[in-house]
Structure formats: structure tokens, C-alpha cells
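A quick aside before the break. I want you to see a complete sequence-to-structure record at least once, exactly as it would be stored in a machine-readable document. Don't worry about memorizing anything.
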Amino acid sequence: MDRKNKVFVAAAIGAAAILVASSVVRCAATRTVESAVPDTPGASQQAAEEQETEGGKMDSDTVQKAIEALRSHAWQAEGDASKTVAFRDGSFVESDSAGVKVTAFEVTGASEDDDHASLDVEMTRDGSGPFACIIAIDGREGSLTVSSDGFANASRYVQGNGSKEPVSVEGVTEPYTTLIDGKDEELEAAIASYCRDRVPTATRATFDGEVYLDIANGRVTATYHCNDKAATILSVRYSDGAFTVSG
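That is the input. The structure line, written in C-alpha cells, reads:
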């Protein structure tokens, strides 16, 4: 595993330090590849396409690890724990005493080196956009920050403390219990493990009372609602005696 992959793996699982440092975060237009391609008739377009293809593979891996890092940490405004941001795939939710603001984003590029990691994104909020911005991750594990001029409530959020309480699973009743072969403890363990990595501020996941039964494939799927400020919804599938959680 090269150093680049280690940087984001550490942020996503909290197993090692991330070394990142960034300049002032600013909204910026998406960078193009033309400046790096020789201005040779006939060869210019081909070289650009090759560079975009190679860069796309690198960016895809970088983007995935960056999103994992953002999702797996709790974030709050420095000095004000009432302001938080929670990341999902393709969106983030900012919360404060006035309510919540949801912003959708699409990643258009990514960059990182030994001391910097950032995502180029196009954001849409309250029906306006898209507008181009950068989301940057800075610092070391335990004192990370995420910053962007595209945030609505604070320009920078610091790594907060995830909930130290165990995630409780509530609302599980018959006949759902029978459909999962009475594996209540395994169900709770699967949800707790997922929330620890992906929804760190949640303390409770509540079964919504609905079950989808796929008889042909032997699958039971149920929906749970977490009590984090982003109101994360989990889908829990039971198949072949094991649980798979996604959100």
C-alpha cells in the first residue's frame, strides 16, 4: 500500500495518523488538463484524453477514501458543539439551533499529497447551484478539521467526539424476530458496528415496523432510523444467517 492510500485509510478507520495541511479553502472553478498537454496539432486532444483517463482512476480511489474519512468522523464547529456537520454519500447535513441545512454535492476531482487532501465539488443547496467549491481535510487523527467556503453554518469544523454510549436498537418485535431466526444480539452488533464507523454520533437506531420479504432469494430487509442530527436511515438485510447494514 502506498503512502497516499495509507493517509485516507487512517482517516477512515482511525488506526493511524493522517498528515494533511491545506491552504485557505476557497470556491474555485474546476481545473482543466489543457495546460499540462503539449500544444501539438492532432496530438493534443489524444494526450488530454489519456491524462484524464489515468487521472480518473487515481481520483476514483482518492475520492472513495476521502468520503469514508468524512463519513466516519463526527464534526462540530470549533468552540460551539451546537453546530455540526454530518456527511453522507453525495450530501452533507449542517445542524444548529435554528435547524438543519442539507447540501447535495457531486465530486468533480480530487487531489492529495503528503500534507494535503481535498475534493473538488459542485454543490447545490435550497434549489440554487451548482457552484464549485473545495472541501479540504486537515490535521492529524484526533484533531482533524474539514473546511470549505461552501459550508452554510461555519467555514470550518473540527473533529468532535463520537458518542461514547453504545448504540441501542429499539422497536424490534414479532414477527420480525422470527424472520431473522431470533438473532437479536447479532442484529444489534451489526448495527452498532456500522454506526461506530459511519454514524458516530448516533446512540439509537429504531426499527420502523416495515419488513421487505424476498422469499425467492431468502432475504429479509428492514429499515431503521438513527437519532443523529442527520437522521440517518439504515437498511438492514438478513440473508444466509448474516446481517448486512447500509445507509
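Two observations worth writing down. The first helix runs from residue 3 to 13. The chain has four helices and 13 strands. We'll return to this after the break.
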